[in-house]
Specification:
Blueprint: H1 18-29, H2 40-46, H3 52-69, H4 75-84, H5 92-98, H6 104-107
Helix pairs in contact: 1-2, 1-3, 2-4, 3-4
Length: 110
């Protein structure tokens, strides 16, 4: 929402690219133990279109899963966390489709 006179120009901020997503995940995993043989390419591919805040949440969820298992963060923890999150940048229709929710109007009969 923009109020008149508050902004001189609009700045479009695009979602991070693949190398930036990997770097963001590494920053948010911080000092948490992560296994060395983690395949970052699949995780980075699966998070295309995610905002930095989405990636921070993904890292926290993966770390929580790893802590629950008593393991260092593994690829499976990251992939499980990614499968439960959707990009906050996606439209409501895209999120509903990803969640398997159909358009209610097409399912309604009177």
């Amino acid at each position: 929402m923009l109020r008149s006179g508050r902004f001189d120009e609009r700045v479009e901020v695009r979602p991070p690219d693949a190398s930036a997503r990997k770097a963001i995940l590494e920053v948010h995993l911080g000092e948490r133990p992560v296994v060395d043989d983690c395949d970052w390419s699949e995780i980075v591919d699966r998070t295309d279109g995610y905002a930095a805040s989405d990636l921070a949440l993904l890292a926290d969820n993966a770390a929580r899963r790893a802590m629950h298992d008593g393991d260092p963060v593994r690829e499976r923890h990251l992939l499980e966390a990614a499968s439960e999150l959707s990009s906050s940048l996606a439209t409501a229709g895209e999120q509903a489709t990803a969640a398997g929710v159909s358009d209610r109007r097409s399912d309604t009969w009177y």
